[in-house]
Fold these 4 entries.
Entry 1:
Amino acid sequence: MKNLSSEELKQSSLDDLNGTCEEIRKEIFETVSVCGGHLSSNLGVVELTVALCRVFDFPRDKIVFDVGHQCYAYKLLTGRADRFSTLRQEGGLSGFPKRSESEYDVYDTGHAGTAVSAALGIAKARDLKGEDFSVVALVGDGSFNNGLIYEALNSVRILQTSVLIILNDNGMSISPTVGGTKDILSEIKTGAGGAERDISLFERYGLQYMGVIDGNDLKETVSALSSAKEKLKTGSVLLHVNTQKGHGYPFSENAPDRTHGVSPDRKVKGAEEEYGKALGEELTALAEKDGRIVAVTAAMTDSLGLRPFFSAFPQRAFDVGICEEHASVLCASMAAAGMRPYYAIYSTFLQRAFDEIVHDVCGQNLPVTFCIDRAGISGADGETHQGVFDLSYLAPIPNLTIAIPKDVAEFRAMLRASADYGRPLAIRYPRCGKVCDRKEEIEFGKFEVLHSTMSNIVFMAAGERALTLAERVRERCLRNGKDFSVVNARFLKPLDETLLRSRKEKYVVTLEDNVAIGGLGEAIARYYRNSGKEIYCFAYRDEFIPHGEVASLAAKSGLNEEEIYRLVGELYARG
Amino acid sequence: MKNLSSEELKQSSLDDLNGTCEEIRKEIFETVSVCGGHLSSNLGVVELTVALCRVFDFPRDKIVFDVGHQCYAYKLLTGRADRFSTLRQEGGLSGFPKRSESEYDVYDTGHAGTAVSAALGIAKARDLKGEDFSVVALVGDGSFNNGLIYEALNSVRILQTSVLIILNDNGMSISPTVGGTKDILSEIKTGAGGAERDISLFERYGLQYMGVIDGNDLKETVSALSSAKEKLKTGSVLLHVNTQKGHGYPFSENAPDRTHGVSPDRKVKGAEEEYGKALGEELTALAEKDGRIVAVTAAMTDSLGLRPFFSAFPQRAFDVGICEEHASVLCASMAAAGMRPYYAIYSTFLQRAFDEIVHDVCGQNLPVTFCIDRAGISGADGETHQGVFDLSYLAPIPNLTIAIPKDVAEFRAMLRASADYGRPLAIRYPRCGKVCDRKEEIEFGKFEVLHSTMSNIVFMAAGERALTLAERVRERCLRNGKDFSVVNARFLKPLDETLLRSRKEKYVVTLEDNVAIGGLGEAIARYYRNSGKEIYCFAYRDEFIPHGEVASLAAKSGLNEEEIYRLVGELYARG
C-alpha cells in the first residue's frame, strides 16, 4: 500500500479510515504470510493504531509499544508502507520499533513490560526540559502480569508527570493470559460485582481510569482517545481497551495463540525437527516415572513444545504468565521442597531471571533444570531476541552445569540423564535441528570425540550450528586430503579437563553460537593458558546482531565458513 | 541468652513472653553493637516472631523471610541463641536465613521480593506430595514495591495452594517506602476513604485479607496469627501487620534508616573514606553545570551517598523504591529523551536489572552511567551480597564501557569525565578506600602505568583492593632488590590494546576483585592469546563466598598475597 501522510489521515472521514483499516489488515496479512512475523497481535490493533495516529501528532507526540509485536500498522502509517514488503528481511524493516529506523520510533522494545517505565521516563524528561507533547504507552494485558509494570505503576505518583497508558486487553499473551490480574481485568470488562473496586486499583496508583471501550470500533476509539488526550492535562490516564487478537481474520481470531507468530520457513524445512518437540516428549516420559518432575513456563507453553506435558500432567504443569523472575523462584523453592522443576524459556527472556538464577537457584545449589530454547542467533526478530549472551552470563555462576547438545538426540539424552542429576543445570539449544533419532546415553561433564586424527589441529565446537560448520570445513579439507580432529565440547561447565589434558594437537580451534566474550572459546583458552598450544576462537563479535536470515547473520557476525577454512589452510601450511 | 525450646515458648504465659521479647531485643541490640548487622528491622519484628513461634510449629511448618534482614529473633528462638554472639563473624551465624545453618531455615534470602514466590513453591510441593503443614512468608512493605511480589500474587489463583503472607508494614525500605503501593497501604492503615476498596486489591488476587493489627502487641498478634492459621484451611491469607521499625530503642525508632544497617568497623577505620561520599559530591557539582543530569536510586539514597544530590536537586533525583528493573528502564528512556541519568546501586542488586542493561540501555546505546557500589567482596552480609560477578555479567554486553577506579580520586575523575561521554558506562567500586584527594584527569579506555621496570614481569590489576595487593607484593620484592612493572588496568572494556601491545614483559600477572570466569584476567589472556606471553590470573574461585571479614575472605577465595608473592619468586627464578 502507499504511504499515507498524517494530514491525509487527519482529514479523511471515519468511513474512509475504516477502508484504510481493511487495507492495512490486508497488507499485514499478505506481508506476514511471506515474511513471517506477529500476525494476530498486529491484526488486533489496526483500528486502535489508526485512531492513535488520527488523534495524536506523531512524531511530536511519542508512543512506546510494549514488546513491540503490535507496531506493524503504526509502521504502515508512519512513512514505511513503501518498504513494508521488506519486513523482517535482512536490511529491511524490523518487526519491532527501532529508533534507528524512523524518527517515529522513540524507544526500542522486544521484551515485555518496559513500556510504562519508558513512557514515564520520556514524559519526565519532557517536563524537566519544559517541552510540551503527549506520551503514550500501548501495553497488552499479558504484560500486566509482568512485575516491571507494577514497579512502573508504583512510580506514577513519585514522578508526578503525565502519560497515557493504553491497556490493550485481548485476554492473550502468546498463550492465554493467566492469573489474578487477568481475573481483575475480566471482572472489569464484564462489569461484574467488583468492577468498581477493581478500577480503583488503577486510581490508587494515581491514574485516571477510562474504559472499557471497543478498540476494534474506530469511531468509539477515536473519541475515547480524544478525551484521554484532554485528561492528560491533569495527570496520567489509563485507557482500558478491549480488542480481539487476530481481528478480521476468522482463522486467526480462532487460533490467536498459533497465529501469534507466523514463520514461513517452518513449512519448507522438512528435514528439520524442533528441539521443543523433543522437550515435550522426553519430559512427559520422565514425569510418568518420576512424580517429582514439574514443568514451568512463562506464557509460552506451545512455542516451547510443552503442550504434551501440560495435557498429560495438568497438576504438575504451571504457566505463570510473563513472569520470568517469579518462575525461577517458584522452581527454586519447589526444588528446595523436593521436586525436580524444569523451567523452559527462550534464551533472551531468561536474561530477566539472571538474579534469581544466581541468588535463588545456584546460591542454594538446587536441582532446577533450565531448558533454554532459541539459543544462538534466532533470526528475523533481531537484536532483542538473539540468544547469543546466555553462555557468557551463565558461565560465572557457581554450581551451575551448562550443557550444549550437538543435536536433538543428544538433547534427549541430556534430558533423560537430568532427572537424577540433582544439581542446577542449564541446557541451551536452538529452535530447530536436523531430524535425528539416534538413541544414546550421556555423562555430564564429558566431551565427545567425533574425529580423532594424527593432524596438528583439533576443532572444539559446541552446539548444532557450530558442529555442523566444523563438519563442513572438514569435508572441504578431506577433499584436499587433509583432516583434523573434532571434539563435541558439549559442556561449558564443567569443562572436560581429562579430555583437554589428553589432546596432543598444537592448534585448537573453537566454534560456538554465542558472543566470544565469556564464552566457550575463552574457557578453553583459559584452560590451555601457558600450555604452548595456539588457540583460535570463532564466535560472535561484540555487537548487537540485527534481524535477518540465521545462517547469513551467523556468517557475518563471526561464524564464517570461509574464514575458518582459510585459517585451517594456514595452520596446515605452518604444520 | 540461653536457647529456648519451642515447648517452653508454647507453654509460657504471655507476660513471660513479653519478658522474652525484652530479652531478645537486648540480645539483638548488644550483639549488633559488636558484630554489626541489621538493627531497626530486627527490633521491629521481635513480638511478631515470638508470636509466630508460639502459634506455628517450626520446622514442621515453614517460614520464608523476605530479604532475610529480620530473622535475628527467629534465630534466637530456634536453637541458635548460644551461637548468636558469632553473628556475621567468619564461621559464625549468618545474618540471613541459611538452609546450611539450621533445619529451621527452609529458604535462603538476601535480595528483596522473593518470599511470596518461594512460599508458593514450597506450599505447592507440599500439596503435590500430599503433606500437611503451614507455609508463611514474612514480607516488608518495602518489598511490596518490587515487581517480583506482583508476579507472585498473580500466581496465587493459578497455583491453587495456601500460604500465609504477612505484610510487615513499617513504612520503610532502607529509605522510607515510596510510591503508589505505599499510599494504598497507608490508606488502609488510616482507614481512610478508599480503605475498603484497597483491601479488595488483595482479595482480587485470591487472598483472604486480615488486618491491620499491631505487630508490636504480642497478645493481639498471637490471636491474629491463630485465626489466620485457621483461615489457611480455606486458602491463602494476607495478614497486614503494622510494626515500628527499631521498636523499643528510641534512637533507632527515630532514625530507622540510619540504624537499618549498623557497621562497627565504620568507626575504627579513620584513614578510609567512602566512594559514596565522592559520588554525592561530584554528581552534585556536575549537575550544577549540566541540567541534563538526573540521579536514580532503588531505595538506597543514603547508603549510596546520594543525599547531597537529592537535597540540591529534588526535581532531578528519583528514589523509585526497590525496583531495580524499572529504575534501569527509567534511566534508559530519560537518556533516549536527552537526559544524562546516573543510576547508583549495589553490585549484587544490579543483577536484578541485567536484562534491562542489555535490552534497554546498551541495546539502544544510551548514555546511562551505572555507579556500582559494594563491588567485590562486601563482607559480613555473605553469599547474597558479594559483588563479585558484575565484571563477568557486564563484559559480554555490547556498547558498554566498564571502568574500575583504583581509588576515590580516580573515581571522581571518571565521574567528571562521564557527563560528556555519551555512551553506556558502568563504574564499579568498593564501599571504602584510602583517603585520597589527588586531582586528576582520565581518558576512557586508557590504562595507567604505575611502575615501569626492566623486569620480565608486569602486574595488571584493576580496582583498589587488587592494586593495593600488587603494591604490597612489590614492596616485599623491592626489599630483596627485585622489582616488576605495575599497570592500572582500569577499563575492562574497552581494553587498552595500545598499551597491551606495547608491553614487552614475558610474564603477565592479573589481579581483580571479581570471580575469575569472565573477568579481567580472561580478557587480558584473550588479548595475549598466541603471543608467547605467560599469563597468571588471580581472582576469586568459582564458588559462592560466605560472610566474614573482607580481607580474610579475599585471601581465602583467591586473592592471596602469599600465593602471589610465591609465584613472583618462581617467575624471577625462571627469568
Entry 2:
Amino acid sequence: MNSAPFARPSGRDPSALRQIQFEPGFSKHAEGSCLVSFGDTRVLCTASIEDKVPPFLRGTNRGWVTAEYGMLPRSTHSRMDREASRGKQSGRTHEIQRLIGRSLRMATDLGYLGERQIKIDCDVIQADGGTRTAAISGAWVALYLAGQGLVESGVLKSHPVVTSLAAISCGIWHGVPLLDLDYLEDSDCDADANFVITQSGDLIEVQLTAEKQAIGQETMMSLLALARAGVATIIGEQFKACGIAGLALPVRANPS
Amino acid sequence: MNSAPFARPSGRDPSALRQIQFEPGFSKHAEGSCLVSFGDTRVLCTASIEDKVPPFLRGTNRGWVTAEYGMLPRSTHSRMDREASRGKQSGRTHEIQRLIGRSLRMATDLGYLGERQIKIDCDVIQADGGTRTAAISGAWVALYLAGQGLVESGVLKSHPVVTSLAAISCGIWHGVPLLDLDYLEDSDCDADANFVITQSGDLIEVQLTAEKQAIGQETMMSLLALARAGVATIIGEQFKACGIAGLALPVRANPS
Amino acid sequence: MNSAPFARPSGRDPSALRQIQFEPGFSKHAEGSCLVSFGDTRVLCTASIEDKVPPFLRGTNRGWVTAEYGMLPRSTHSRMDREASRGKQSGRTHEIQRLIGRSLRMATDLGYLGERQIKIDCDVIQADGGTRTAAISGAWVALYLAGQGLVESGVLKSHPVVTSLAAISCGIWHGVPLLDLDYLEDSDCDADANFVITQSGDLIEVQLTAEKQAIGQETMMSLLALARAGVATIIGEQFKACGIAGLALPVRANPS
Amino acid sequence: MNSAPFARPSGRDPSALRQIQFEPGFSKHAEGSCLVSFGDTRVLCTASIEDKVPPFLRGTNRGWVTAEYGMLPRSTHSRMDREASRGKQSGRTHEIQRLIGRSLRMATDLGYLGERQIKIDCDVIQADGGTRTAAISGAWVALYLAGQGLVESGVLKSHPVVTSLAAISCGIWHGVPLLDLDYLEDSDCDADANFVITQSGDLIEVQLTAEKQAIGQETMMSLLALARAGVATIIGEQFKACGIAGLALPVRANPS
Amino acid sequence: MNSAPFARPSGRDPSALRQIQFEPGFSKHAEGSCLVSFGDTRVLCTASIEDKVPPFLRGTNRGWVTAEYGMLPRSTHSRMDREASRGKQSGRTHEIQRLIGRSLRMATDLGYLGERQIKIDCDVIQADGGTRTAAISGAWVALYLAGQGLVESGVLKSHPVVTSLAAISCGIWHGVPLLDLDYLEDSDCDADANFVITQSGDLIEVQLTAEKQAIGQETMMSLLALARAGVATIIGEQFKACGIAGLALPVRANPS
Amino acid sequence: MNSAPFARPSGRDPSALRQIQFEPGFSKHAEGSCLVSFGDTRVLCTASIEDKVPPFLRGTNRGWVTAEYGMLPRSTHSRMDREASRGKQSGRTHEIQRLIGRSLRMATDLGYLGERQIKIDCDVIQADGGTRTAAISGAWVALYLAGQGLVESGVLKSHPVVTSLAAISCGIWHGVPLLDLDYLEDSDCDADANFVITQSGDLIEVQLTAEKQAIGQETMMSLLALARAGVATIIGEQFKACGIAGLALPVRANPS
C-alpha cells in the first residue's frame, strides 16, 4: 500500500460498528422475537418455547436451548439454492447453528429453566457480512424476551437468562485490524474472527480463521480488544430493546 | 345459527379485503422484490434473473419463470419443523410453489423473454391465512420490477410481463361467502377457494376445495364474484407499487 | 381454424367419455381394490385398512383416509425416473395424492369409521391423460369395497362411505370445450380443469388451470356442465362394479 | 414328520411349477413388455431403449442393460411403505435389481448392441413368493421383444439377445426339496435358493441361503436338478410368448 | 493361452489361500473386535451388544444379530465417494451387509441370546479382493468374543454362538478354478462365487455369479471343493484368535 | 478442590502430550497416508490426488485441498449410528471437515499446485478425545507425502506444501490449563480450545468454546502458550515421519 491515508471500503473508522438496530416483537406468533440489523445485514430471530426436551434430557428436570439458522435464497448477492429444495443443509449452516446454540446455552440457567426447550430460529433476510454474529446478538434478545414471558406469566419466578452476551466479527484487512466487517471487507481480508463475549468481557466463543496468512499473538490481541469494545456497545442496544433499565442484568434471588 | 346479526370473526364485511400493502424494493440484492402484506400475513417475494434455462428449453430461445415457496419455522402459531432440516419439502409446499410458477408464466411473454429464467422466491415471514394468494400477488410485483430492470438496462425493448393478475382466497363460512379469509376463518370454513384472475376478470387458476360439505354451482358463482371484485382492488395496489401510471399495462409495440 | 368440420384428435364427440371400466377385486391381498381404465389410462387402486391413525387423531375416536399416488416408470411415452430411486416424489405426485386423499375424505363419515385409517394407493400402470381423475374414480370403488368388508365382517353396522362421487377432466381445445382429454388433447389444450363432483352434482374439488390463455366465466360454466354429465355416467359404472343396486347409496339408519 | 403322506401347502407335486404365463406387449408405450405370472405372483416387466449409456461406457461403442425393481405397496399381504415416499429403496430391492441386471447382461451381446442402454423395470403387481425369479424370467421376454424391435426397425441386423435363460426358486421344506415356492412355503422353509440358468443348463447365478439350517452338498444338487427341469419348461413358455419358432435361439451370422 | 505352465497373477497355487490373519481385540471400546487380513485386504470388525431389539422382536424374548459394512473412501485403488457424504449406501453395500447379517444369525442361538441385539460393523481399511468373505470370517471372531464376554460377565451361562463358520471366495480364471481371488484375479475372472460354510462343510450361503460365461455343474463342484478346504484352514485360524482350544466348539449343556 | 496435590485424570503433567505417533504409508493405495495416534486416539489419514478441481476453479490454473472426516461406528465408547446409513452427516462432522480443509489449504501453495485437487480423508479408527487435532496433524503428513510424490515423479519441481503446521487441543479442567485432553478430561472441562499453529508459532485457526464458564483473556493466553509448545513437539514428529532432515521445510527456489 502506498502512503495514501488508509480507508476501509465502508468508509468507517477501523473501530466503528455499523448501524446496529434491534426491533423486538417483530413476529406476532413467537414467544420472543427480534429483527436485528447490523448495517444492511438483517436477521429475523425468533424464540419458541416447547414443553418437550431432547431424549437425552428427559426426566432430568433440565432444559435446553437450541438454534437453527437459514438464509433466504435471495438474501445474498446472487441467488443461492434453497436448502429445503436441495434436501440438505450445508456444512456452513450446520457450523453456524451449532455456534448459536452453544452460545445461548451459556447465557441460560438450564437447570432453572426446567424441562423446557427454547428453539431459536435465525433467518437471514438480507446478508452483507457478519450474519452469524448478528444472529447471535439478535437471538439473545429473542431468548431474553421469551424468558421474560415465562416470568410474566408466572411459570418461572426468576428470569432464566442469567448472562448478557453479544457477538461481533473482526478481521485483518490489508494489515489493519477492523471491527464489524461488511461483505466487501470480509471477502478480501487476511484473517477474520468471530467473538462471543459476555458483558464482563469474558470469552464464550472464539473462531479465528486465517484466510490469507497466519497471524501472530499480538494481532489476535488487537482483534480481541476491538471485539470487546464493540460488544459493550451492542449489549447496550440489546438492553434498550429488552427494556432492561440498569447497566447489568438484575441480580437474581437464588432461584434454585 | 340464530337470528343474531351475522359477524365474521375478523369483524370485516363479507366482501371486505384486509389491509393490502406492497413494499417494492424491500430486498437490496434481488432484481425485483416486494414485501406484501394481506393483514397480518406477510410474504417476502424476490425475483432473480438468471441467464440459464432448464434443460428442456436450452436452445429454444424461450425463457421460463419458476417459483419456490417456504415458510419461516415460526411464521405460524406454533413452530413448524424447518424443511431444510427435515430434508424435504412438504406436499403443501410443492403444491403452492407449482401454483405460483404456473400463474406467473401466464403473465409473461416467455418467447420474448429469451433464454433467461426468472426465479421467484416467496418466503412467508408471518402467516395469518391466505399465504399463497398473497404470495402470487406479491410475486407479480417482484416479477414486474425485475422485468422493468431488463427494459431500463436496455436488455429488452418492451416489458416481458404482458398480463396483470392477482390472487385472492374466498370461502363459505357458516353458510356465508366471505372474501379474503384470515387464519381463524379459514380453519373453520365449509369450503374455500383460491382464484388467480386477470385484470379483465378472466380465470388463470381456480382451486376449490370442499372442507366440510360439497357446494353447488350457485355458491361457486358467488365466490367467483367476490374474488373478481377483490382482485380488481389488489391490482390497483400492485400498479401503485410498480409505478404504473394508467389503468392497464401499456400496450406493447409488437415485440416479436 | 378453417371451416372444416371440427374433429378432436381422439375422434370422439366433444362430450363423449372414453371407454370407462372398473375391475373390482383386481388385487388378491387388499381389503378393497379396482383396476380402472379410462381408455388407455389404467390405474390400479387399492384400499388398505389399518388400525392405527396419524398422531393428530390418536384418542379422538375418529378415522382417516389418505392416499398415495405413483406412476410406473414406463407407464408413460418415454421412461420417467423411478421416484423411489431418485429418493423423492415430484411436486406433481405430491399435488395429486393430496387431491385424492381430500376427495375421499369428503366421501367418508370419518367419525363413524372410528380410529381406523384407510390408505389408498393409486398406481398408474399405463398413462394416456387423466390419470388423476381416473385414480379418484377408481379409488372410490376400492374405498367402497373396503368399507363393505367392514360391514360384512361385522366391524361396522353401517357403511362408512356416505357420498358417491367421481372425477373427470375437461379442457378447452382449439376453442372447443371437450370432456375427458386423452394425452394428445391434453398436451395441446388452452386450459384444462379437473372436477370432483358428487352424485347430486355438487362440487368437491375444482382445479382449473389456464395453459395458453385465461378463460372467462361462461367457458368455465360449459366445462362444469360437461363434467357433471360425465360424472353421472361414471358413477353408474362405479355402482355396477360395487354391486350397488339402486340409483343412490342406500339411506343409512343414523349410525352415530 | 410322521408317516402321513407328504403334502406341500400348495398341494403341488414337489417338482411341479405353478401356472406360468407370459403376456407379451402388456404395455402400450414400452419397446418391450410382458406381464408374467407364476401362480398368484404377477410382475409387469418393461424394457426401455435409450441412446445414452452410463458414463463409464461413453465412447466405448458398447451398450448396457440395467434393471430396477419395485413392489406396489399393496402387492403384499399387509401394506408396505412406498419406497418413493420413504425416500429410499430397501436393501432387498437393491439386491434384487442388481441380480436382474447382471443376469440379463449375460444374455446380451453388449458389444453388438452398440452405445445403447436397455433399462428393464420389474414392478410387482401382486406377490406370492418368487417375485425375483418371475421378474428375471419376464424381463428376458421384455428384453427379447425390445431387441426384436431393433432388428425389425433395421437399427440392428442381428438380434442382440444371444442367450436364452430363465430363473426359478427352490427350497427345502420340512426336509423335502421343492420347486417354485409360493409365499406360504417360502416363509417356512429350511433353506431356499434362486437359480438363473441357461437353456443349456449352465449356471448364470446361484443364490442359496440357509434359513433354518445349513445344507449339505447332496441337497444342493437336488435343488439344482429341480431348477434345471423347471427352467426348461419356463424357457418353452418364453419362446411361445416371443414367437420364437424353434427349440433354440436362431444361430446368428457372426454379427461382429 | 499357450502351453507355458499356468501361473495365476498372485503366483499362488490354485488352491492356496493368501496369508490369513486375525488380530483379536483390535478395538478398545467394542465388546468384541478383530482386524482380519486376507493378504492386503484388511477389514476391521467390531461387535456391539445392545439391550434393545428391532421392533418386530420386542416382547418375544429372542435376540438378533445384524451387520453394517462400509469401505473407507481410499481403501480402494482410486478413491470412491464417501457414502455418508453422498447420503446413501450403494446397492453393493446393502447386498453385502445383508449377507453378513444372515450368515452370522445362522451361527447364533438367537432364542438363547435373549432380548439383545449384536451389531456387527465391518469396515474395510484396505481392499484387495474378497472383502465380503474376509468380513464374514472376521465378524465371526468379533461376534464370538462378544459372546464370550456375556459368558464371562455372568449374563449368559452358555455361549450363544453355536456354529463355527467362515467364508471364502473362489473363481474361474482363464478356465482354471482358483481359491481366494485377489483384486487382479477377481477383475478378470469368468465367474466367481462366495461361500459361507460351516466347520462340518455344510452350506450357509452360496452366491455364484457368471461374469463372462455361464458355468456347468461340474465346475461349480470344483469351486465348492476348493472353498471347503479353504474354510477348514480359516476356521483353524479363527479358533486360535479366539483361544478355542479343541477342534470344535465345546458341546453345550442344553442351554434352553 | 482441597489442598491435595493436583492430578489430572490421565496422570500426565498439565503440559504433557500423550504419546504421539505417525505411521507414514499405512495405506497401500493412497498417494499419501498416515495412521496417527495421540494416545488411544487413532486416525487414518489419506491423501488422494485428482486431476479435476471443483467447478469454481475450472480454468483458473489453481488447485484445491479439501477434507472429509468420519468416525467408524464403534470408534467410540458406545456405538454411534453410521452416517452412511442415516443418510446424512452430522453437524459436528461438517464442522470438523471444514476445519481440516481450511487448515491444509493454508499449508499449500494452491497456485503452484496447478489444476489438481488433493482430497484428504480422515477416518477415526478409535476415539479418546482430540480426534480433530490428531486428524489435522496426521493429514498434514499425508498431504506432504502426496506432494512429495508429485515432486519425485517429476510432475512438480518444487514441493507444493510450503508451511508446516500441526494442531492440538487444550482446556481448562478444574481451573487448571491442560494440554492435549483425553476423553475423560474433555468431557468434564470448563472450556476447551483447538489450535492450528504454524512452526513459527502463528495462528491458522482458533476454536475456543466455553463449556461451563466464560474465560478471561489471561486464561486464553495460557492455553495458547501450552498449545504452541505442544505444536513444536508434534511438528518434530511429523518431520521424522516425512523424512524431512532439517529443522524447517527446505527453502523453495521461487517456484512460480
Entry 3:
Amino acid sequence: MPLNIDFVTPFVKSTVDFMTTMAQVEVKAGKPFAKTDITAMGEVTGIISMVGEKHTASLAISFTKSAIVAITNNMLGGTIKELEMDVIDTVGEVTNIVTGGAKKLLVLKGYKFGISLPSVILGKGHSVVHTTKAPVVVIPFSTDNGDFFIEICSMSLKKEKVN
Amino acid sequence: MPLNIDFVTPFVKSTVDFMTTMAQVEVKAGKPFAKTDITAMGEVTGIISMVGEKHTASLAISFTKSAIVAITNNMLGGTIKELEMDVIDTVGEVTNIVTGGAKKLLVLKGYKFGISLPSVILGKGHSVVHTTKAPVVVIPFSTDNGDFFIEICSMSLKKEKVN
C-alpha cells in the first residue's frame, strides 16, 4: 500500500500555524518518513481518530516532556515543570485543534471526516501501534525546548463505515 | 453530566460473547464504576473511537500481561509468553470485534457510529486520559489468568461532527 502523502502538508501547516500563533513557539518541521518498527514515543501522546464514509485515519502526536512543558507554559503563562493536569489538557487541546485545522484543508482535497474525542497517553517509554497494514507516516518537529512528532495512518475504506 | 449507562450492557455482552466463543476464555464482568482519577492501566491497551453525527465515544480495553497472553494463546493455539507482535495484533482484533459487536446492539438503541482503526498502547504503567468532561465508565472483567477492564467515555454532540 503506498504512503498517502495527502495528509502530510495539511498537518504540517496546521501544526506550524498552531505553534506559532496560539503557543508562540518557533517550530521547524523535518522530513517525513515511513515508520518501520515499534519505536518508543515521547512521554506524553495525544491520539485522535478521523472517521469518514470513505476514509479512516488515526493520528498520534507525541511530545518530549521538555517540549510540552514549554508549550503549556507559553500558552497558559505558567511556570509548570512536571506533567501535571494542565499539561495533559494542553496535549488534548493541541491534538484537537491541529486535527481540526488539518481537516479544513483535507476537505478541500475531498476528504470528509468526523473527529473523535482525543485521548492522552502518559508513561515513560510507551509506544503506540497503529493496527493496520497501511503505512504510517512520521513527521518530526523540533522546537528550542525539544522535539515532538506526529504519526499519521490513513486508509481508504472499501465499504461505507458511517451508517 | 450523568453517567451514560446505555453503553455498558452492549459492551459487557459483546465482550463476554467474544471471550467465550472466539477466545474460549471464561470471563466474569464486575460491577461498572465511574473513573475518578488517572489510574495506571494494564501493560497493553487497545483504543478505538466511535464517531457519529450525534454522538462520539472512545473506548480503551486494557489487559494485564498474563490475561492477554493466555487469550492470545487460546486464539492462536500457541505458547507465547511475552508481549510480542501476535499479542499486539490480538489486542487490536479484540478491540475491533468487541466494539463492532457492541455497535450492532447500540444501533438498536438509536446510536449511529463509524468506528476508527484501533491503536494499541504498550508500556508498563501507562495511563490513558479521556480528555472530556463526560464521565468515564469502567467495567472490570476477570479471567482465570488475570484481569482486564474496559473504559468507555461517550458524549452527545450539539452540532453535527461528520460533515
Entry 4:
Amino acid sequence: MADLTLTTFEWVPEPPRGFVRDLRVRWALEEAALPYRVVGVPGDRGPEHLAHQPFGQVPWLIDGDLSIFESGAILLHLGELSAKLMPSDPRGRSEVTKWVFAALNSVEMASLPWTMLKFMGHANDTPAWKFVDDFLKIRLKHLEPVLAKREWLAGSFCVADILMSDVLRVVDSQGGLAHSPACRDYVARATSRPAFAKAHADQLAHFAAADKARS
Amino acid sequence: MADLTLTTFEWVPEPPRGFVRDLRVRWALEEAALPYRVVGVPGDRGPEHLAHQPFGQVPWLIDGDLSIFESGAILLHLGELSAKLMPSDPRGRSEVTKWVFAALNSVEMASLPWTMLKFMGHANDTPAWKFVDDFLKIRLKHLEPVLAKREWLAGSFCVADILMSDVLRVVDSQGGLAHSPACRDYVARATSRPAFAKAHADQLAHFAAADKARS
C-alpha cells in the first residue's frame, strides 16, 4: 500500500491559484482514488526544500522512502500504482510515456514562456516575442489534427492527458487556443472530469485556508 | 534481443550539425553497446513522418513493433534494456527518471528558447529576451551547487546525464555557462566519454554523406 505525501507551497498569491503544479498530482491521485495527504512548504526555499526539489519549485511527492520531484516523474510513478492512470502492458506504457514527454518537452517548452510573457504584458512587437509566439503556434498546429482524431492521447484517459490538458488549459486561460478548436475541446473534456474538479477545488481551498491563518 | 532502428533527418544544413537530437539516442546506444541502424527521413514532414513523430521533429526509434518519439521517452526505453543506462531497482530507476524530467522540463524548457534567440541574434534589450535570459539564469543557479557536489546526477552515469549534459552543451556553445563552472566541468566530463565522441562523429558523417549524395 502506497503511503503518499504531496508537498506544495503553503501559500501563494492570487494569480497562480488553480494553476500551481501540485494540481497535476492531486488530479492523478483523485483519478486513481489513492489516499494521500498534502503538506505546505514556506516560500523561502530553504535547504530542506532544495533537498527535495533542487530548483526550489513545487510539487514533490514522498512515497515511503522515495522522494520524487518533477510532475512528469511523479505522474509516471503514480501510473505504475494504478491502471486507471497507465496500462501495465509494455505497449500501453510506451504510448503513455511518449505523450507524457510530448506534453512537457514539445508543448510546454513552448507554452510556458508564451504564457509568462503574456501574463507579464510582454507580448508585443519584438523579435523575441515573435519567436516565442511562433514556437507555440507551430506546436499547436501539429497537435490540433492529433486531438481532432482521438478522445485521449493514448487510447484511454491516462497521466499524459492530465499533463497535456493542464499545459493547454494555461494557454487557453490567456486566449491562446482561439484557432485550435480540437485542443480547446480536449481541455473542456479533460477538465469536466470529477477528479479535476475535486483537485482544483482542493488547491483553491488549501491556499484560502493559508490566507485565514495569516490574517 | 532488441531490433533497433533510429530515424533522423537525411540531411540538415551546417549550423545544427552535431546538435540534432538523434545524438542523444546514438550516445545512449553506444554507451550500452546495443546494435542499431540509422535511417534518414526527408525534411518535408510528410504523413509517414507525422505518423511516427506528430510534431514533425526527429528522432524516433523503432524497437520491434514499438515506435517511440521524444528523446526522453526513447532514453527511458533504452534504460530498461541496459543497466549501463539505468539501474533496474525501483529506487535507482526513480532517481534517474526524475533527473530525466529535470533535464527536459526544468532546464531545457529555459535553455532552448534562450539558445534559439541567441542564435537568431535576438538576445537584445527587450523585456521578452530579459525574461528568457533570467529564466535560464535561475535554473543554472540552482543546478550549479548540485553539480558541484556530484560527478553524475543519479549516482553513476545514466541516461539523465546524457540528456542534461546535451542540454547544457548547447548553452555552453553560445557562451551561457560562463558563470557556471560546475555545469561547464560536467559538460566536459560527459562529452569526454568515448560513446559521445563516437555518436558525435557518426552524426557529422551521416550528414556529410548526404552532402555528397546531393552534389
